[in-house]
Design brief:
351 residues; alpha/beta; Rossmann fold; two-stranded parallel sheet; 11 strands; binds NADPH dihydro-nicotinamide-adenine-dinucleotide phosphate
């Protein structure tokens, strides 16, 4: 693919983010020219690691300014691009004051990006980063169903983040369905589970925060919550495959492994890091204690509603249709931990 990719330019929105950064790396390593959007070109420090990587690979990487909440910049961003990976979307650790703080940038931002693509005359395909939050949320809490791409979250019954992801993905499918023939481009969607894996700089993404907390023992025990985890490097590969493979057009792909409780993640981390001087907690946080602690911790307050919930999703479609594969999650957890230490997000210890 690398040789064929040489003349293709890919726009990656939100290039300063955790997943987008790995997408930029994956594209550069496969010979694509990459343009990334950032909210401000003045914050060059947020993308310095990508510039250094492009230089070391002899790859082509440039940045342009565009904000999901504003029209300016998007036309310039997509001009001359063959593909767009639309990754940017607000992903906060806490519930926002108002749900529109998440929903408007997610939904209106998606429409802005897609409008610019339709007008570009060059963009052939957009791959949008959605989430299992657009698939498996807002349903009956006790359901034991394994969710697939046929399922949609019930947005009316979701907190603001899954609601924003569900509405943004629906907006994208509606947008491409309504396009006139002369403006048409293809859409494919990746629905990642809980994304872990090595951070590329000291600006850690929201999802690795739990690994930081465990390694720093910021919590004395593990809340009974869990996720369907996946490695950020595999998510970047999934985006590239969904961009390259003709049959991926018009499809959404869940990319996530088997459900893991935080306790299970903690045990893997404890095996690796406790002999190196860390004190990863592996016990279970009793619900009443979690409930009390949530009064002082906004992230715990958000987690409270998910206590006991299993995230059962199937990635069979991505495996069979994209030829996608996941690396073992224990390796992902260990490598996340080491990268957090390397970038100073978790203090280094002796041993
Ligand atoms: P990050 O917070 O690291 O990245 C989010 C990116 O979106 C940042 O580059 C951020 O820019 C950008 N962004 C946020 N708001 C705006 C805005 N108004 N205008 C322009 N850019 C904006 O999160 P992740 O990398 O983890 O998430 C990336 C995508 O993946 C999101 O769509 C998220 O919903 C999705 N996802 C993430 C999962 C996870 O577990 N991490 C799981 C499933 C889906 P800035 O740096 O300026 O803040």
């Amino acid at each position: 693919m690398a040789v064929a990719a040489k003349n293709k330019t890919v726009l990656v929105t939100g290039a300063s983010g955790f997943i987008a950064g790995h997408c930029v790396r994956e594209l550069l390593e496969n010979g694509y020219k990459v343009r990334g959007t950032v909210r401000s070109l003045k914050a060059a420090g947020k993308t310095a690691h990508l510039t250094a990587l492009a230089d070391s690979l002899g790859g082509s990487l440039e940045f342009v300014e565009a904000d999901l909440s504003r029209d300016d910049g998007w036309k310039q961003a997509v001009t001359g691009c063959d593909y767009v990976l639309h990754v940017a979307s607000p992903f906060p650790l806490e519930v926002p004051k108002h749900e529109d703080d998440l929903i408007r940038p997610a939904v209106d931002g998606t429409t802005r990006v897609l409008k610019a693509c339709a007008q570009s005359g060059t963009v052939k395909r957009v791959v949008q980063t959605s989430s299992v939050a657009a698939v498996a949320f807002g349903h009956d809490k006790d359901a034991t169903e394994v969710y697939s791409e046929k399922d949609w979250s019930n947005a009316d019954n979701c907190d603001p983040y899954p609601k924003s992801k569900t509405l943004a993905e629906k907006a994208a499918w509606d947008f491409v369905k309504a396009l006139p023939a002369d403006k048409r481009f293809e859409l494919a969607v990746i629905n990642p589970g809980f994304v872990l894996g090595p951070v590329m700089n000291a600006d850690a993404g929201t999802s690795v925060e739990i690994i930081c907390k465990l390694l720093k023992r910021d919590m004395p025990a593990c809340p009974r919550i869990g996720f369907a985890p996946v490695d950020v490097r595999d998510i970047a590969i999934a985006h590239r495959l969904a961009m390259e493979q003709p049959a991926a057009a018009g499809n959404r792909y869940i990319c996530a492994g088997d459900h893991l409780w935080v306790e299970d993640m903690a045990k893997i981390l404890a095996d690796e890091f406790n002999p190196r001087g860390y004190r990863v907690p592996t016990g279970r946080l009793p619900y009443p204690v979690m409930w009390l602690a949530a009064r002082f911790d906004k992230a715990l307050r958000l987690a409270l509603q998910y206590v006991g919930r299993k995230e059962e999703v199937s990635c069979a479609k991505a495996v069979h249709e994209l030829g996608w594969a996941m690396r073992p999650i224990d390796r992902t957890l260990r490598e996340t931990g080491y990268s957090l230490i390397e970038h100073g997000l978790v203090p280094a210890r002796g041993a």
